[in-house]
């Protein structure tokens, strides 16, 4: 299945920041990732959390980043995108962050993670897809975009849409 317009925009934005640091992963790159996804969300008319580093309303809200549709009173109407990123190579830490996306009711669920080699990513994503399939709250059409940054390669992206085939 092909990426839709929003997923393609996310992939393009992430590919554009692959040379952002002396080493990966680091805080500088994480900030650039959030800035890129904030820009996309704001351009599409959403309230984005976090809006920037700060306190109060500016801090993260449940997820590393999310796009919110709110009414004039600031009430949450919809959450089109949630993103989690985890740069720890230990799978237990990766899975813990990924599980937050399982419970999200968002059209787009973006999970960014780190692996030491590019060869590790496909089998790990397959494991996560197994978790999606096993989770009782999964619905047909649920979308996931996986982005892996391995030490030995550039970004790798895989998509999974539940009920539409395997990760591509």
Describe the structure.
The N and C termini lie close together (7 Å). 33% of the residues lie in helices and 25% in strands. The mean pLDDT is 86. The chain is globular. It has a domain at 5-18 and 81-161. The protein has helices at residues 5-15, 27-43, 91-102, 120-134, and strands at 47-49, 65-70, 76-86, 108-115, 143-150, 156-161. The chain is built from four helices and six strands; from the N terminus they run H-H-E-E-E-H-E-H-E-E. A six-stranded mixed β-sheet has the order 1-2-3-4-5-6, sandwiched between helices. Strand 3 (76-86), helix 3 (91-102) and strand 4 (108-115) form a beta-alpha-beta unit. Helix 1 runs antiparallel to helix 2. With 168 residues, the chain is of the alpha/beta class.
């Amino acid at each position: 299945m092909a990426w839709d317009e929003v997923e393609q925009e996310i992939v393009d934005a992430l590919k554009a920041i692959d040379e952002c640091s002396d080493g990966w992963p680091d805080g500088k790159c994480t900030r650039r990732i959030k800035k890129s996804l904030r820009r996309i969300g704001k351009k599409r008319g959403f309230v984005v959390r976090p809006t920037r580093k700060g306190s109060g309303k500016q801090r993260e809200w449940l997820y590393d980043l999310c796009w919110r549709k709110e009414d004039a009173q600031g009430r949450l109407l919809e959450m089109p995108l949630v993103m989690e990123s985890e740069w720890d190579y230990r799978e237990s830490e990766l899975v813990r962050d990924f599980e937050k996306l399982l419970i999200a009711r968002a059209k787009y669920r973006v999970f960014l993670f780190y692996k030491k080699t590019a060869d590790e990513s496909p089998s790990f994503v397959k494991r996560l897809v197994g978790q999606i399939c096993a989770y009782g709250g999964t619905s047909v059409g649920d979308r996931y975009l996986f982005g892996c940054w391995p030490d030995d390669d550039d970004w790798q992206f895989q998509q999974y849409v539940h009920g539409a085939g395997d990760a591509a």
